[in-house]
Amino acid sequence: MLAAINGVFYSGLKLRNRSAASLEKSLPLTQALTILKRDLASIAPPSTNTTKLIGELQSSPTGTSGSQPQFGSLAGATGGMSGQSSQVSPDFYTLSGLLDSDSPWPNVQKVAYLLVDSTNRSALGKDLIRAVTRNLLPAGGIEEEPVEQLLLTDVSDVLFFFFDGTDWQESWDSTADETMKLPRAIKVQLQMASEDRASQQPPIELVVPLTVEASTNTTSQATGGAQ
User: CA spacing 20 to 30 A to 138: which of 26, 97, 105, 214?
Assistant: First the structure.
């Protein structure tokens, strides 16, 4: 009887440990997707005045590395974890900035995403970095260095797509059409790194509808679905 009880207890303990390990492994991914969703859902329409606090949404790659479009506005950034980096997203002007008594900035901030070589030699992929610029009207026109935040490790690829109401586009330029400044939705594909092709999982997709449609001087509400 004791042997049977011990077997049941040992099996239950192994199941608990596996569940705890799986939950702990999924937490960074869940947090990264939450931050991504908040940034994209809070994208602000480009400014229509001369101050230009909120810039245009323009994904104009300067080249490609594999399947990844490379963007140039943060080409000099190295990532807080050092190593070579590449900007894999356009600059997003978003209203996701947190207001507090220590920061004299509004909730508008510029966010970009980079893939940085990991300093962990056992890492399977690169680190996904979120670069944030809060001061969008710096004195003297000298831009400040963005604050970099590690979002996720072991990432091999990140792609952004823009929905125009009919099709998914690989690029977007808010200056090309005055009647449609922002896409209807943005899709992010995260490909996690794996040891070999046999264990590679399909990319993780996040679809974020944009509920603000920006035109020349007006802002109207558009319907949007859920993630």
Answer: 214
In a domain, 202, yes or no: yes
Quote the number of domains for the chain. 1
In sequence order, the 6+-apart residues with CB closer than 8 A to the CB of 186 are 40, 43, 160, 161, 162, 163, 207, 208, 210
Question: Would 8 be classed as within a structural domain?
Answer: no
SS3 per residue for the chain: CHHHHHHHHHHHHHHHHHHHHHHHHHHHHHHHHHHHHHHHHCECCCCCCCCCCCCCCECCCCEEECCEEEECCCCCCCCCCCCCEEECCCCEEECCCCCCCCCCCCCCEEEEEEEECCCCCCCCCEEEEEEEECCCCCHHHCCCCCEEEEEEEEEEEEEEEEECCCCEECCCECCCCCCCCCCCEEEEEEEECCCCHHHCCCCEEEEEECCEEECCCCEEECCCCCC
In a domain, 185, yes or no: yes
Range of the domain at 158: 26-221
d(CA 199, CA 135): 43
pLDDT digits (tens, 9 = 90+) for 182-219: 999 999 999 999 887 777 889 999 999 998 765 444 44
Domain membership flag for residue 121: yes
Residues in the chain: 227
